[in-house]
Design goal:
Length: 147
């Protein structure tokens, strides 16, 4: 992902701090996981590890984009973490409700598209959110992009 400090400077600073904290462990993030895919909507996950709690104030922040573009990565639930989502389609309607802090690369979007195809848990109620049968765990590392 490419971090977007112009949209969420506090979130970017906190994510960089979290990745630096995990660096001695090769980015191992004990409970960082992707758990929710919703076709034509989002892929959702969370950041959770001992010593790392990403939570930043939602406001004040720069105004967000009125059309949430495919590939934007934002905090879920109108909060500042630790749950996040990748927007899988261009869409309106979020207004300024979700703080977006990064943009997924094309390579990452291909992975998120594959996540949408993974097996889902059975829903107990029609309005339940989808959940992966098995969560996908990930690490957090920093890498400078080649210019």
């Amino acid at each position: 992902m490419t971090l977007l400090p112009e949209l969420a400077p506090n979130s970017v600073a906190e994510l960089l701090r979290a990745a630096a904290w995990l660096a001695p462990y090769n980015g191992y993030c004990q409970n960082c996981r992707i758990y929710r895919p919703e076709k034509n909507f989002l892929v959702q996950g969370m950041i959770e590890a001992p010593g790392v709690y990403v939570a930043v104030p939602r406001h004040p922040s720069p105004p967000q984009r009125m059309v949430m573009e495919k590939g934007l990565i934002c905090w879920a639930g109108g909060s500042g973490g630790p749950h996040w989502f990748v927007n899988m389609v261009d869409q309106r309607g979020f207004k300024d409700d979700h703080l977006c802090f990064a943009k997924a690369t094309n390579e990452s979007m291909a992975v998120f598209d594959k996540i949408l195809e993974l097996p889902l848990k059975n829903k107990t109620k029609p309005n339940d959110m989808n959940g992966l049968v098995e969560s996908l765990y990930y690490n957090m590392t920093l890498k400078k992009l080649q210019q």
